[in-house]
Amino acid sequence: MSFFSEVEKTIERAFRKWTERAFGPAQSDELLLVRRAILEEIEAKIQVIQRGQRLFPYNHLRVRLVSPEPDRRALFHAAFAQDRRLENDIRESLQGAGCALPAGFAVDVETAEEGPKGFEIAYAIRETPSIPAPAPALEPEPAPPPAPARLEIVRGKAARDTYTVDKTRTNIGRMQELTDSQHRIVRRNDIVFEEGGDDANATVSRAHAHIRFDRPSGQYRICDDESEFGTRIFREGRSIEVPAGNRRGERLCPADEIYVGRACLRFEQ
Q1: Domain ranges of the chain
Q2: For the whole prediction, is pTM greater than 0.85?
Q3: Counting beta carbons within 10 angstroms of the beta carbon of residue 92, is it exposed (0 to 12), middle (13 to 18) or buried (19 or more)?
Q4: Which residue in 3, 195, 201, 204 is deepest, having the highest Cβ count within 10 Å?
Q5: Domain 149-268 is in which class?
Q6: Residue 5: predicted pLDDT
Q7: In which residue ranges of the chain is pLDDT below 50?
Q8: Angle ∠(9,104,89) on CA atoms, nearest 5
Q9: What is the DSSP-derived secondary structure letter of residue 176?
Q10: Beta strand ranges found along the chain (DSSP E)
């Protein structure tokens, strides 16, 4: 999975945890192998065009999972088709690899009793219907930009004592840049705890967590990126664990203390 690299590994760990809880370890291992094979085949369709830009040329995929056993087909449907789970994983993996998706991208998942292989993927390019432009009076107001927030380093050593948070996503980790096996950058951290800075810094993973701005609610939320020592919020005398790999994360409030491992930042807005 050379294109997906660290991004795909993070998504895969979340998939494994979910399937283990839902179906048990044995079924989880089997589903993970099927999912990995599907993504590897899709990776082979990525095209590299001018200036190294990556493009996925198809906007519609039909994934057919084959088994003569009804229970196994039901398992495939629950793991991949419900909530468009496989489509969401494919989207996030391709986008995380820096690959542009065509308009109208969609993935349909179906099961069948017979077929030449365990799964088949049909690739197609479908025309997307043109949508008439709304009347000027009905145009929605543009979403407001993130309200600036501030993070103060309380414990641990970073390049600065305070950081301004005014982007849609702010990455936190122990290295400025993360690369894959071919030395391609897969992530840049905005708040960097120095490598070897102190004992608290050693508990910060290289890709530990990120803060995202949720435009509909106007809130900042903290998400743990499958870190080794975890992320939690200390608020008004109580500790709130941030679930590992949960894309929604936890809401941040002024004066919250964010612990990434044993390092600590104070959130103010």
Answers
A1: 5-124, 149-268
A2: no
A3: middle
A4: 204
A5: mainly beta
A6: 56
A7: 1-3
A8: 15
A9: S
A10: 47-48, 54-55, 60-66, 99-100, 106-112, 119-124, 149-155, 162-165, 169-173, 177-179, 185-188, 191-192, 209-214, 219-224, 231-235, 238-242, 250-251, 257-260, 263-268
Amino acid at 52: G
Where b means 16+ CB within 10 Å and e means fewer, 185-204 reads: ebbebbbbbeeebeebbbbb
5-124 in CATH: which number?
A: 3.30.2320
Query: 243-259 burial, b for 16+ CB within 10 Å, e for fewer?
Result: ebbeeebbebeeebbbb
Q: What is the pLDDT of residue 3?
A: 47
Helices (H) and strands (E) in the chain, counts: 4, 19
pLDDT at 129: 67
* pLDDT at residue 148, as a whole number: 84
Question: Tokens 């542009």 belong to which residue?
Answer: 100
